Amino acid sequence: MLELLVPLHGIGGRGDLPVPLWLAIYSAGAAVAVSFFALAAFWSRPRFETSGGTALAHLTRLVDARPVRWLLKLAGLTALGLLIGAAWFGSDSPAENPAPTWLYVWIWVGIIPLSLLFGPIWRLANPLRTIASLVRRTSYRRLPDRIAYWPAVAGLAGFLWLELVYPDASEPIVVAAFVTVYALVNVAAGIVYGPAWFGIGDAFEVYAEVLARLSPWGRENGRIVLRNPLAGLAAMPQRSGIVALLCLLLGSTAFDGISRWSAWTSRTGDLSRGQHLLVYTLGLLGAVAIVTALFVLAARTTGTADVRPGAVGEAGLPGAFVHSLVPIAIGYAVAHYFSFAIFQGQEGVLLATDPFGRGWDLLGTGGLRIDYAFLGTGVIAGVQIGAIVLGHVLGVVSAHDRAAGLFRRRQLRQAQYPMLAAMVAFTVGGIALVTAS
Question: For the whole model, what pTM was predicted?
Answer without folding.
Answer: 0.89
